[in-house]
C-alpha cells in the first residue's frame, strides 16, 4: 500500500459579520414569510368556507322568497332561479325542495344523483359536507349542502292545512379548493417577489450599517502601509471605544519605538567620550599605572552611564488594559523600607488613601512613582510626610483617573527652581546625596500615562508638594 502525501486541512475560518447577519436575517425573513403565508392560507380557507355557507344560505333565502303553493297544494316557482347556474345542467350548483309527498329539483340537477335530502323541522338550518354524489357522467363527486326547514301556512288556514317543506342548495365541493389553489398560487408568488425585494433591501441596509467597520479596516490598512499615522476621529459611538483603544495602542507603540531609539542614541553618544579618552591615553606615552587608573575611571563612568540608560528605558511606556492595582500595599512596603533607611531622622509618613482609588497601569510604574516621590520627601522632610491618593476625573466608558500627592514639612522648593529640579541629572541641593534623576523618571512615567506633574508649596505641611494627576484611561 503506497503512502500518499498527508492532506493539509485548511484552518477553520469564522464567517464574516456580514455573512452572519445576512444569513440570520435571511433565515428570519424566510421564517416570517412562511408563517405569514401559512396564516394567510388558513385564514383564506376559513373565509372561503364561511363564504360558501353564506352564499348557499342566501340562495336558500332567495328561493324561500319565491316559493308559492297553489290552492291544491302544488308548488309554484318562477322559471328563472336566483343564479343562472341553477338553470344550466351540470353547472355544479343545485337546488332541491323537499315536500311531504315528493321533491322538486332545479334544471341543473337533471342527470346527477344528489345525496338523499331529509325533511327538516320548521326553522331548522343545516350546513354539511362534503357529501358524496354521482355526476351526470357517472363520476363520483362531493357537494356542500345548506338546508332550511320551513312551514307553509296560507292565510286563514287551519293547523290541518299547514305542511312542512325544506329548501336545499348544494354546490360542488371542488369550488372552494379551486379558489384556494388560485389564491395560493397568487399568494406564494407575491410573497416570493416580496421576499426577494426585502432580501435585496436587507443586503443594502446591511452593507450600509457595516460601512463604518469597513472604513475602520481601510484606515487600519493605511496605517499598516505607512500612509496614515492613526485612525480617524469621526466614527459611530459604538466604535469609538475600539478606535480610541487602537489609536492609543498605535501612539503607545510609536512612543515606545521612539524612546528606544532615543535611549540607544543617547547611550551611544554618551559612550563615545570615555572611549575616545581611552583611545587617546593608549596612543600617548602614559605609564602602565596611569593607563590602569584611567581605564578603571572610564569603565566606572561607562557602567554608570549604562545603568542610567537602562533605568530610563525600564520606565518607558505602559501596558494598555492593565488590571487595576491597589495602592496602599505598595505604599506601606515602600514606607517601611524608607523608615529603616532614615531612622535617624524619625520621619513619620501619614496616609490619606481613598479605598476606591486604583492605579490602572504596571505595578512597576506605580512603585517607581511612589518610591521616587516618597524617598524625595523623606530626604527633605523634617518630621512629617503625607501621602494623599484619591480617584481622579471620570469619563463615560473609561477607567477613572487618579490623584496622587506627596507633601513634606521640609524647606520646600522655590518657584523659580522648579523647572530646573525636574530636569534629568539636576539635584535640588548638591549637598544632598543622589543622582538627580528620580524626579525626571517620575515625570517620564507621568507623561507616558498622559498625566501631569505639579510641584508647589504644601498648604498643609508647609514644605514641598508633588501632585500627580492621571486622566481617565481607556
Gist?
The protein is of the alpha+beta class and 474 residues long.
- Which structural class best describes the helix and strand composition? alpha+beta
Number of DSSP strand runs: 14
How big a fraction of the residues is strand? 15-25%
> What's the pLDDT, averaged over the residues?
81
Shape: rod-shaped
Number of helices, counting only DSSP H or I runs of 4 residues or more: 8
Gyration radius from CA atoms, angstroms: 50 Å
Task: List the uncertain runs.
Answer: 427-435
What is the string of helix and strand elements? HEEEEEEEHHHEHEEHEEHHEE
Helix content: 40-55%
Instruction: Please state how the strands of the largest beta sheet are arranged side by side.
Output: 4-3-7-6-5
Taken together, the total number of domains comes to: 3
N/C terminus separation: 61 Å
How would a crystallographer describe the biggest sheet? 5 strands, antiparallel
Which features characterize this protein?
474 residues, alpha+beta, Heat Shock Protein 90, 3 domains, 14 strands
Amino acid at each position: 500500500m503506497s503512502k500518499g502525501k498527508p492532506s493539509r486541512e485548511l484552518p477553520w475560518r469564522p464567517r464574516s459579520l456580514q455573512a452572519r447577519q445576512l444569513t440570520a436575517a435571511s433565515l428570519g425573513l424566510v421564517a416570517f414569510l412562511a408563517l405569514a403565508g401559512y396564516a394567510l392560507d388558513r385564514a383564506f380557507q376559513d373565509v372561503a368556507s364561511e363564504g360558501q355557507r353564506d352564499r348557499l344560505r342566501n340562495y336558500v333565502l332567495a328561493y324561500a322568497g319565491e316559493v308559492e303553493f297553489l290552492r291544491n297544494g302544488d308548488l309554484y316557482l318562477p322559471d328563472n332561479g336566483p343564479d343562472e347556474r341553477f338553470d344550466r345542467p351540470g353547472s355544479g350548483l343545485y337546488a332541491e325542495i323537499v315536500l311531504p309527498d315528493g321533491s322538486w329539483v332545479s334544471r341543473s340537477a337533471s342527470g346527477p344523483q344528489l345525496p338523499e335530502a331529509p325533511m327538516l323541522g320548521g326553522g331548522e338550518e343545516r350546513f354539511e359536507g362534503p357529501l358524496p354524489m354521482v355526476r351526470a357522467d357517472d363520476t363520483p363527486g362531493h357537494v356542500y349542502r345548506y338546508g332550511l326547514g320551513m312551514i307553509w301556512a296560507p292565510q286563514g288556514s287551519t293547523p290541518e292545512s299547514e305542511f312542512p317543506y325544506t329548501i336545499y342548495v348544494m354546490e360542488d365541493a371542488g369550488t372552494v379548493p379551486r379558489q384556494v389553489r388560485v389564491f395560493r398560487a397568487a399568494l406564494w408568488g407575491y410573497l416570493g417577489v416580496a421576499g426577494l425585494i426585502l432580501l435585496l433591501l436587507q443586503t443594502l441596509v446591511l452593507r450600509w450599517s457595516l460601512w463604518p467597520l469597513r472604513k475602520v479596516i481601510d484606515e487600519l490598512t493605511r496605517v499598516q502601509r505607512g500612509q496614515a499615522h492613526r485612525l480617524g476621529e469621526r466614527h459611530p459611538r459604538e466604535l469609538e471605544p475600539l478606535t480610541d483603544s487602537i489609536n492609543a495602542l498605535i501612539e503607545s507603540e510609536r512612543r515606545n519605538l521612539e524612546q528606544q531609539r532615543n535611549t540607544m542614541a543617547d547611550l551611544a553618544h554618551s559612550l563615545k567620550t570615555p572611549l575616545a579618552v581611552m583611545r587617546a591615553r593608549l596612543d600617548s606615552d602614559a605609564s602602565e599605572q596611569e593607563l590602569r587608573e584611567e581605564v578603571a575611571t572610564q569603565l566606572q563612568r561607562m557602567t554608570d552611564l549604562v545603568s542610567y540608560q537602562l533605568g530610563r528605558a525600564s520606565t518607558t511606556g505602559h501596558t494598555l488594559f492593565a488590571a487595576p492595582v491597589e495602592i496602599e500595599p505598595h505604599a506601606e512596603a515602600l514606607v517601611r523600607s524608607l523608615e529603616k533607611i532614615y531612622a535617624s531622622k524619625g520621619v513619620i509618613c501619614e496616609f490619606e488613601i481613598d479605598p476606591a482609588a486604583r492605579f490602572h497601569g504596571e505595578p512597576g510604574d506605580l512603585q517607581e512613582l511612589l518610591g521616587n516621590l516618597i524617598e524625595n520627601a523623606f530626604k527633605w522632610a523634617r518630621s512629617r510626610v503625607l501621602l494623599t491618593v484619591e480617584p481622579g476625573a471620570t469619563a463615560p466608558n473609561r477607567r477613572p483617573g487618579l490623584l496622587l500627592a506627596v507633601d513634606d514639612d521640609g524647606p520646600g522648593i522655590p518657584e523659580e527652581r522648579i523647572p530646573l529640579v525636574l530636569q534629568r541629572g539636576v539635584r535640588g541641593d548638591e549637598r544632598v546625596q543622589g543622582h538627580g534623576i528620580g524626579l525626571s523618571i517620575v515625570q517620564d512615567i507621568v507623561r507616558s500615562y498622559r498625566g501631569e506633574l505639579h510641584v508647589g508649596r504644601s498648604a498643609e505641611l508647609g514644605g514641598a508638594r508633588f501632585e500627580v494627576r492621571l486622566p481617565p484611561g481607556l
